[in-house]
What does this fold into?
Amino acid sequence: MTRIKRLLALLPVFLLAITPVCFTSCKNSGSEKEAGDQGTAAVDIPASVEEIAVERGLSPKDVIAALKTYIPSGKYDDYVMFASGGHSGQVFVIGVPSMRLLKTIGVFTPEPWQGWATGSAESQEILSEGDMPRGINKKLTWADVHHPSLSETNGDYDGQFLFVNDKANARVAVIDLRDFETKQIIKNPNTISDHGASFVTPNTEYVIETTQYSTPLPFDEYAGMDEYKEKYRGLATFHKFDREKGRIDESQSFSIELPPYWQDLCDAGKKVSDGWAFCNSINSEMATGGINEGNPPYEAGISQREADYLHVFNWRKAEQVFKEGKAKDLNGQYIIPLDTAIAEGLIYFMTIPKSPHGVDVSPNGNFIVASGKLDTHATVYSFEKIMDAIKNNKVEGKDPFGVPILNFADVMEKQVEIGLGPLHTQFDNEGNAYTSVFVESTLAKWKLGPPDYDGPDAWTVVEKIPVQYNIGHVVCAEGDTVAPDGKYCVALNKWSIDRFLPVGPLHPQNFQLIDISGKNMQLLYDMPIGVGEPHYVQMVKADKLKPWLVYPEVGFNPMTMSVDPEAAAIGNERIVRNGDTVEVWMSVIRSHFNPEHISVKEGDKVIMHLTNVERARDATHGFAIDGYNVNLSLEPGESSTVEFTADKPGVFPFYCTEFCSALHLEMMGYLLVQPTQPKS
Amino acid sequence: MKENELIFGPRIPKELWEKERKRFLIPSIVLVAAAVLLFISIFLPYWKITLIAPQYPQGLTASMYVNRLTGDVQEIDGLNHYIGMKPLGEAAVLERTLSIFIIIGIALLIAGAVYVHSPFALFLCIPAVMYPAFFLGDLYFWMRSFGMNLDKRAPLSGAIKPFVPPLLGEGKIAQFATVATWEVGLYMSIAASVLILVGLYFHRRAYKPLLIDSSGR
Ligand SMILES: [Cu+2]
It folds into this structure.
């Protein structure tokens, strides 16, 4: 019994021995986190900073700009820009304020790194949705990406989807921002050129797409230039977006037939003007050019008249008219005839001086800002006045097609003197508007008027900052939503001339970051874009995006956004021959494919289902088959299918094209294609 | 003395219970507390290993519960295949299947000891007292078995010599620094052992006099 007493005496010692272990282990995990989360509160700036500035020839302003844009390793940007990729057919994802390129998203053109249309059946299928319609057997291998548009909820970015258009072929694409991949490409069945796209309505009910260059409808129907007025038409298409499915639903979409003016940029009304849409147009002259036939060239013919037409659409009512069955089916597209649109009050015109370009609705939805690119003004229309003019039939006439033209004096709120060649306008949270001024190469900051801004300097330019050079669009932080953030604008310049080291005659574009948070605007940073000519860009607060870090489940098919029933998995790898078809289920993991040998006969159809079963961030594998023009990007959890005919006999290594591991080179296998007839 | 008193010991006389309630309550409460601690530990991790390497800034962790493994097990298995270690899921399958029943059984035995007022109570408590040591012993057995029996055909079998990962504290395997920690479940089971010993001490103080009385009668 004394033993027990002795044991008991030892107990406290034992307890003491184990407690510190617990304490240290518990404490450690806590303190590590804190150190990671909190930045340093105070900084001692060493004297050497000045030395560096002097040595590098940096002015105090430069140093401030550097401090405002530098993002240390491991820290993130506050904003993300989605930039149209112009000729590249892609979308660029860029962090702000660091102006670092985070990603390019393959959309209308093959993008090998992402395995976009370089062999995967899924991406090939999406891209082929955008092929030319009606047996015109033309694969489109480039695009002119113009205007990205983030999905909105109540007029504010919700970070879920992105839409972009291809001006060159009148296509609209849907990108899902969970995996930053393209999910759908729609070829407008009747037009071949668009520009006023993609712009979403405040709850992403519709994605707006309007024609740029008029053609007969459909575009593959012939009519000579002499029939321009009679046969050529434009279209405003309202693509219905099914958010649940993450796809545009063409069966619920409708279009409005338009006169053959070249419809230009658009913006959807918001808040008070929700339910309406506004699109600019040029060529009310209906000029048909023909310099080679002794006629004035387009550039002259189209600039003849003093004014063009800003189109005002009542899309909510048009939706009703469409649902009442008053639209006509043309190649699966439901078009409300222009006469019907006029009779139902779906369309009105407002005159706008001199070849306008941009049209932008102010955050509260009460002002519509349009600029004539050959004018020095931004013309501001009041939505209230527009409604009043429509209600009380204050019209100054009709266009040749019978569209009522609202009386300019009755709808115009103000003409603000901006400068030479104003194009596009964005807004901040303090009643300021920022207009890009192309010919002058400046960004103009000006004050809206009451009720958005009530001050002595209302409706005047308060500051201009030179930009380098030839600014097209401008983007400000959430600057086209109901709740702009201010803080940053980026001038999207067409020319860079002397801003960067020369890289041959084709110069990069120049994205210039401008700090708009202070009393004066300050240019912070130049970012060269050497991939294509971006047009419009949208800038969203980074924390609104909730992208996946890996696919949520193993065997995930990005096209269906669900686990593929055909997905390969560990343990079910197999090769099955069925007649002339060889089907392969292959698992992919560091650092091997399984199976590694695939033997087929010349002429066999080969279908391979591959699944990357990895769950670690960044553990992406590629899958390339030499000589067969195949490269897949298999991201962690992703399942993909590749189909091809083994029409070339021989021995073809396949291998992982991502440096996934130390034994990456060993991650390979052989496709052995036996010739059907041995060579004699 | 009745026969079952040999095992269950004498009951507490009513007058004594009323007079010295604390004397009998303390051992009961302490033993029941130990049983409860042990039971709760089923839901908590016992042991954790963290692997740290440059390309895993958050580290990789595997947490061991009595019946399952959680954390980055798949990733750790994926890495382990390079050195020819079997997947962690293949270790201690029997133990993990039976653990919950066994622990509940052990806990019930402790609770049962409350009603046994004889030295036999000690025997009911022995499994629980020994349990943490058994857990660690079994863990060591499996780590040794896995670490020492690496597949010789594995890609890196030439580069990594068989090893036994530490039960507690730091180690190193290839580019990974490893830290093994004991987790709250294990500490609770150890605390339960300690409580049992304390409880038994008070148990003896409470019932031994009764036992002498009853046998002396
Ligand atoms: Cu790989």
